[in-house]
């Protein structure tokens, strides 16, 4: 099968998706609710955020804490961060993670899973079938 046929096949498959599925409501990450305590930050709705992203907590933490450049740990439903953080910074870091590790780069839907192949990571999309290599930023 050449590339042209493959494209046609893909278009056909897309046409078969009902319109109501194509127009699913926009995926929204809950905004971080922060609490400050002696110059530290707690993300109070951390569990809710992780559940929405539907990703492994430890994977998220590894990336997030590296970008935030601080120590942090899960405390019950909350995430403790050793430093005061502005709300916009936290939300931006969560958005960055979401764009790279959750949303399909083809159809922008969050119905994906991370697949590991040696050192390479792929994002497999259940919605459109795309499988793209994750480029860590
Ligand atoms: Zn997709």
Report on the architecture of this protein.
This protein is of the alpha+beta class and 137 residues long. It folds into 2 domains: 29-102, Defensin A-like, CATH 3.30.30; 104-137, no CATH class. The protein contains 5 helices and 7 strands, in the order ααββααββαβββ. The strands form 2 sheets. Strands 1-2-4-3 form a 4-stranded antiparallel β-sheet, with no helix packed on it. Helix 4 (57-68) packs across helix 5 (87-101). The relative contact order is 0.13. The site of zinc ion has 8 residues, from loops.
Which terms would index this structure?
5 helices; binds zinc ion; 137 residues; 7 strands; four-stranded antiparallel beta sheet; three-stranded antiparallel beta sheet; single chain; alpha+beta
Present the secondary structure layout.
Layout: H1 3-16, H2 19-22, E1 34-37, E2 40-43, H3 46-53, H4 57-68, E3 72-75, E4 78-81, H5 87-101, E5 112-117, E6 120-125, E7 131-133
Antiparallel strand pairs: 1-2, 2-4, 3-4, 5-6, 6-7
Helix pairs in contact: 4-5
Bound molecules: zinc ion (ZN).
Zinc ion (ZN) binds next to loops.
């Amino acid at each position: 099968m050449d590339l042209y046929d493959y494209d046609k096949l893909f278009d056909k498959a897309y046409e078969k998706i009902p319109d109501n599925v194509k127009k699913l409501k926009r995926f929204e990450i809950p905004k971080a609710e922060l609490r400050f305590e002696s110059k530290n930050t707690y993300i109070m709705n951390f569990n809710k955020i992780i559940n929405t992203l539907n990703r492994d907590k430890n994977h998220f933490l590894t990336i997030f804490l590296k970008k935030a450049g601080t120590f942090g740990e899960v405390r019950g439903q909350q995430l403790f961060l050793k430093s005061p953080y502005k709300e916009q910074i936290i939300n931006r870091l969560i958005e960055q993670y979401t764009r790279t590790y959750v949303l399909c780069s083809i159809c922008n839907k969050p119905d994906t899973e991370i697949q590991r192949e040696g050192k390479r990571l792929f994002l497999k999309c259940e919605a459109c079938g795309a499988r793209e290599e994750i480029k860590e930023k």
